[in-house]
Design a protein that fits this description.
The chain is mainly alpha-helical and 77 residues long. The chain has one domain (3-74). The chain is built from four helices and no strands.
């Protein structure tokens, strides 16, 4: 069963509930989950742009990238 079908089933079940305490509990859980998702996806636009620019450079010229084993040798210990 895909996620959209599962959501539809949950929505139909929720429509049948009349217990106000259960409705409030479910709403609180949904609010908490939405806040957590927003926190996780709040990467500043400038950072996103910088990463995408670096990906583009790497795709256009993969030879400019260093091999990790070689790069490690250049780091100070």
């Amino acid at each position: 069963m895909n996620i959209q079908a599962e959501k539809a089933i949950i929505i139909e079940q929720f429509k049948q509930i009349n217990d106000v305490n259960l409705i409030h509990a479910i709403k609180n859980m949904l609010d908490y989950a939405l806040n957590k998702e927003q926190e996780n996806s709040s990467i500043p636009e400038a950072h996103q742009k910088l990463v995408m620019e670096r990906f583009d450079k790497a795709r256009k010229n993969p030879d400019r990238l260093l091999d990790w084993d070689e790069a490690k040798k250049t780091l100070k210990t």
